[in-house]
Amino acid sequence: MSKVRSLLIALCIGAPLAASSALAQKPFQVEQRWVIGGDGGWDYLTVDSSAHRLYIAHQTKVDVVDTTTGKAIGSIDGLTRCHGIVILPDGKTGFISDGGANNVVVFDTTSLATLAKIPAGTNPDGMVLERSTGTLWAFNGTSHNATVIDVNQRKAIGLVALPGKPEFPVTDDKGTVFVNIEDKNSVVRLDAKAQKVTATWPLAGCESPSGQSFDRAAGRLFAVCDGNKMAVTDIHTGKSLATPTIGADPDATSFDPKSKLVFSSNGDGTMTVIDTAKPGFPVVQNLTTMKGARTMTFDAATGKLYTVTAKFSPNPAPATPGHKSRPIPSRHLHRPGRRPLGYFIPFSLRYGQDDLLSASRWSAASIFETGYPAHAQLYRTWAG
């Protein structure tokens, strides 16, 4: 089996100066790169700001990383194919959607031990906690429905049918949940108390919506789509407000209520930054990250974004002299609609000779092939 070495990249947002002027003063930059290691693919990330922890869905386990050091704390093991992670507000209990086992795993955040397994639909994927009802919504990608879980009782209390394949959910924590429907190019509004669909809106100009974020104050949903587009939707009317251009192959988006900026993590190795406070939703930066870095999470307490990607080590030495390992695009190795396992390219990553970058202008450090992933090292750039 090929070995995966994953570089976890923390993107530093910096201290916002004003609603939308922060970026003009100081562009975002890659602050740290952490080698996590291990086998298998990656999916969603979740950050617990108060505990300084980053949870990363890592196929058959969830890796837990200390965000202050970049060091691994431990992992929740025994999973089949995990996707989403939700941590309760008290920080004591977490939930993981295990799509391969068709259940939601409850775990203790201190010991990382499994506490319970709650049956769900087929292939539970994205999840969201709706605080006003104390319910966790696990959206089942294959059975096209949502399992509603009482987080206190740790049991399913409802099953809501959906018009297609759900992707990523968000909530206003006042009783309303929104989830985009990937195969219908639409977004659904749900009543969390009544446990029913109350509206379905088409996402104009959006193909295969995946990641979604939410500006609660302005009542806007942001969905990333194929075709290098982000769909902006008014939650009061269901109407499309804009479709700004983003990077290719996106899978996640986050919104920062302080700076009014929305971010799209793209598999082409970019992070698109959009100013939602200005007319037309202009793109203000396309930050270079790494190929395959499609999922992310945002830490509102520190203003940092975290994204993750994976690289596979070289194939075994060929029997034929002169034969080289052949890179295989990850899109050929996963079923449609799922996140890739990684890019099969022998590599290690190093910054260029200058670790200290200009304070006035950020430019991407060079990435070049120097050997095997096991030789990848941690480098840091300092903001001026």
Give the gist of this structure.
The chain is an all-beta fold and 384 residues long. It has one helix spanning 22-25, and strands at 4-5, 7-12, 29-35, 45-48, 53-58, 61-66, 72-76, 82-87, 93-98, 103-108, 114-119, 124-130, 135-140, 145-150, 155-161, 166-171, 176-181, 186-191, 196-202, 212-215, 220-225, 229-234, 240-242, 250-256, 261-266, 270-275, 283-288, 295-299, 304-308, 311-312.
What features would you describe in this structure?
The structure is a single chain. The protein has 384 residues and is an all-beta fold. Helices cover 1% and strands 43% of the residues. The protein contains 1 helix and 30 strands. The strands form 8 sheets. Strands 3-2-29-28 form a 4-stranded antiparallel β-sheet, with no helix packed on it. It has a 4-stranded antiparallel β-sheet with strand order 4-5-6-7, with no helix packed on it.
Largest sheet: 4 strands, antiparallel
- The percent of residues in helical segments reads under 10%
Terminal-residue CA separation? 43 Å
Strand order of the largest sheet: 3-2-29-28
- Residue-averaged pLDDT, rounded? 79
Q: Helical region count?
A: 1
User: What percentage of the residues does DSSP assign to strands (E)?
Assistant: 35-45%
Give the strand tally.
Answer: 30
Low-pLDDT residue intervals, each spanning 5 or more residues: 1-25, 312-384
Using the CA coordinates, give the radius of gyration.
20 Å
Class based on secondary structure composition and strand pairing: mainly beta
Shape: globular
